[in-house]
Amino acid sequence: MKTSDVRTHRRTGLQFSAIGYGGAPIGNFNGTVTDDEARRHVDQSWGHGVRYFDTAPGYGNGLSEYRLGHALRRRDRTDFLLSTKVGRTVTPRRGAATSNGQYVELPSMAVDFDYSYDGVMRAVEQSMQRMLVDHLDALFVHDCDRYTHGSSQPEYFRQAVVSGFPALESLRDQGVVTAIGFGVNETDVMIDAVKAVDVDLCLLAGRYTLLEQEPLDTLFPLCEERGVGIVLGGAYNSGILAKGPVRDARFDYAAAPTNVMSKVVALQDVCASFDVELPAVALQFAYAHPVVTSVCVGSRNEQQQQRNAELAATDVPQDLWQALRDANLLRDDAPTPV
User: Fold this and answer.
1) Most buried by CB count within 10 Å: which residue of 102, 240, 264, 327?
2) One Pfam family of this protein, by short name (predicted)?
3) H helix intervals, 217-300
4) Has 287 been annotated as catalytic?
5) Which tens digit of pLDDT belongs to each residue from 179-216?
6) Residue 205 pairs with which residues in a beta bridge?
7) Extents of the domains making up the chain
8) Is the dihedral of CA 164, 29, 70, 97 positive or negative?
9) Is 236 in contact with 260 (CB distance < 8 Å)?
10) Architecture of 6-238+291-315 per CATH?
11) Of 21, 59, 115, 156, which is the active-site residue?
12) For 244-280, how does the pLDDT look when each residue is reduced to its tens digit (9 = 90+)?
């Protein structure tokens, strides 16, 4: 596997690089990044062969979109794919730099959830202005899940399906965007979305990894049947599959529980017996399923980007995959690289 490998989404013909650029870090996620550092990150990812870039208004109050758009403005627009998300409007307001959850040192903005038709249209206009583009390759309805909205999730999801998604369909019909879908971290919510509307592409984070393969039973067969592609995020499950079972390991944005730590120890032991690093196996496993069009990876610095490129290119022996199955660490029906 190489970062620059291409997989074509059959429904739209969009050609995705195997590794996509996850734009959260340049929105000051878990730490500040300067404008110059953000530009260098994007340039280096381009040098490694990345041609798919994903961002969102929620990644730093629009900061990630702004930085990504300015970093890519020197590139021919036909040479790369660009996606962002809807569901939040971001409006300037007076005030000092602020924080928003794990995003720090942000421009002062009023950020509001809005999955209505008008809200989606307004969000897309704002995003395209920030990124200096007149066309988007993909748009995802973002975070209409229980993690974000709690008990109000059904109300927000219904608004997205009934009001917001028709706005995306209109933009698709006008040629403003090529592919439309949902971007959430919960498999059952994604299934509901694929069944409810005419989805082209979905972004699923953290739910199909070496530690979780439930979508094999439900979401992936449904997507294959309907020609829906999947962009995967969270191939390292918030970091534990990258760092291993260290004391501060994170799983699904929280401290890793004991049972997860134990499984990662077992995974790491099998990988070590073949002299292969666990994160290389995790990254290549995520891309092996044919419904997956790209695996988006967020990198905090140039060293992490270099490492991700090296992990993607690592030679993983076929016997390693079988050893994981023999140890009941990997489902027999989970596709692996050939």
Assistant:
1) 240
2) Aldo_ket_red
3) 219-226, 240-243, 258-273, 278-288
4) no
5) 999 999 999 999 999 999 999 999 999 999 999 999 99
6) 233
7) 6-238+291-315
8) positive
9) no
10) Alpha-Beta Barrel (3.20)
11) 59
12) 999 999 998 889 999 999 999 999 999 999 999 999 9
